[in-house]
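Chapter review: from sequence to fold.
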Amino acid sequence: MLFSVITIMFLSFCPAGKKADVEMHINSSLTTVDDTTNMIRYLAVDTFKLAIIPPSSGVQFYKDRIVFLSMSKNERKMSPNQISFGTVEAYYASVEDSVSGRHMVFSPSSSFPFPCEAITFSKDFNTIYYTKIPRKDKKEKIYMAKFNSSNKGQTTLVSENMPLNFCTDNYNYTHPALSYDENMLIFASDREGSLGGMDLFVSRNVDGKWSSPQNLGMLINTAGNEFFPFLDSENNLFFSSDRLSGNGGYDIFTCKFNGKGWDKPVNLSDHINSDKDDIAFTINKIDGKTAFFTRRQRSGKDDMQLFRITLQQEIKDRNLLTISDIFNGKAVSKPTPLATNTPAENKSDESLYLKTKPETKIIKAEEVKAPEKTVVPDKPVGNGNVTKKETNSIPVENKVVPVRTTIPVQSEQKDVVIYRIQLLPSTSQKNAKVMEINGVNYKIYEYLYLGADRYTIGEFSALSSAVALQKTCRQLGYAQSFVVAFKNNVRSLDPNLFK
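The token string follows.
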């Protein structure tokens, strides 16, 4: 069926020397959750009783529900053994109803038998990007469809006849992932420019058209295969890969979005990943508190088990974190702009001040000091010498005089930003409170983040200096080390600090 051949082919692929040349699994620690023990404190992972029907490999969130493939004969109001035929069709239901069997047809007006993990929605859920194999082509392509409502209240899914404008060559384009602002589309492809089998590419929406795709680069893509991209509401990227730093088959990785691109992939740890194929990761973008992924046997059979990820009750009750926050750090909201006064004119030095409304003050005559004598030049005479005469100012009577005041702008307190390197020192180093890196002793700074102790070294005002120490730390075996920023002594995830 559609997708089954090519998807299973790539998922079953594993480099021959992988087991013999497996790297030390040092990337399983996360940016915000540093070991599996802490991961268990935050997340619950359980099997979910919903069958995965090929050619699908998983499910996708649709509004506050999930959409999945099922056999039509199983959805009819009679026993399945009374029906000898059936077709694959997309249905949707709430998470609870998906198990109990109260399902609704996803596209009542037309059949939709396409893999549900390989679809993505606009934020209003009216536009869908999905993948299918065209009739005259054996390569998967990405299409766009829209939900239209008729005067009778019926909703129809109307699909474009042609794939997206960049899907015109003889390559595969699959698993689209749309950013929340709908300006980026990430997908998997073996198109020209790929580093290995399937790579992840990004296309950007420019004036209503999708730009020529760009490879996400060697930081994310490998000589193996990268599949199943997913973007959360903060554009953090999740995907599956069979790279060497995994646990076995395909592992799920995440890359934090830094405002311009994506940071180095981080393994979701063995609390999520296994020695089997872990694929098709997706999060509910509405509240971020539920996620799904699929675990597939590496035997080549279509034996797939769906898993659900939820927040542990303690974390859920606090209502402070989402699942993506635990993997990538809590998003930092943009600061609210300070209220501004009427802008000052730029014609003079008064532009350095904030002008206030003229203040009225009563000035009494007795308050006015006697004016000093002033010298007023008279007209020149004779040889040009000036004769001078003295004059006094006229006394001031009691009257109201407008007095304009200017208030100097208070200089805004400058934020102090310090960069440090977060890593995992040994127990002896923690006790000594010092780490030696290439002959230099660095003080260990300890802080609490997401309920766990974190350890950093160094203190730099320039990002480049911190990056240089990070590189050195990784060369010395601290492969988990990464740069963290502190603004006014508080950990900050502001992407502008890392540009």
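Two observations follow directly from the output. Helices lie at 4-12, 36-42, 72-75, 95-100, 313-318, 323-328, 427-432, 463-475. The longest strand covers residues 440-449.
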